[in-house]
From TrEMBL:
The lineage of its organism: Bacteria, Pseudomonadati, Pseudomonadota, Betaproteobacteria, Burkholderiales. Heme c 1 binds at residues 50, 53-54, 94. Keywords: Heme, Iron, Metal-binding, Signal. PANTHER family: BLL4483 PROTEIN, CBB3-TYPE CYTOCHROME C OXIDASE SUBUNIT FIXP. GO terms for cellular component: periplasmic space. Residues 1-29 form the signal peptide. InterPro entries: Cyt_c-like_dom (IPR009056), Cyt_c-like_dom_sf (IPR036909), Cytochrome_c4-like (IPR024167), Cytochrome_c_Oxidase_Subunit (IPR050597). Gene3D superfamilies: Cytochrome c-like domain (1.10.760.10). Heme c 2 binds at residues 155, 158-159, 201. Coiled coil: none annotated. Residues 31-117, 141-224 form the Cytochrome c domain. This is Cytochrome C.
Amino acid sequence: MTTNLIRERRRLYSLAAASLLALGAQAHADSLADQGKAIATSGSGAAVACASCHGAQGQGMAAAGFPYLAGQGADYLARQLHDFASGKRPNPIMQPIAKALSAEQVKAVAAYFSQLPPAIDAKALAGRADTYPPKGDTGAWLANRGDWSRDIPACVQCHGPGGIGVGKDFPAIAGQSAQYLHNQLAAWKDKKRDPGPLALMGDIAARMDDAQMTAVSDYFSKLPAAAQSPAAQAQGAQK
């Protein structure tokens, strides 16, 4: 057997092993998401169905202040559930639900919602970043330029252009309800919510006044009006 033939066989064995590992990982991810879907739609024990408040497609219920979950990062969603359960993020509705979930169920629910079509059209929103907003538009200015007289950086520096979210620590905020966004800023300002990575949000919210919180919350809540989300399109098709 020649050296080249031996090398070729080893290469093929390596490729086959890698393919099997990839298939196994995908199968596990799919199984986890299926388990999460069951919990999201039907609940589990003391944990009521997530869809009751966050919608069948994870699109949220803006009028009631319930945020969308569809398309948010799995790591971010899992961390929020752990924070609800531990009390780091106090909430009378979410705390008992999160406490009723096992660690595996938390991973499953997070995996399920992360795989749903995003509640926003990230590509369109990223392309419409308001680099030079009108000075009189406080919300747009804070979102895209910040207020350096108060050491408040632009929201898009961490949450991405158009507020589409970046990585596992900075969720999408475009299209979230103004009520929800304002409530979170107020919770950080009042130290009623864990400040997150590097305590960034606690420090930023502490420097904002209520008018700024309202303005920037309104700004982000209205962004998807310029680009209908895939989730909204799917929901409309079912009617």
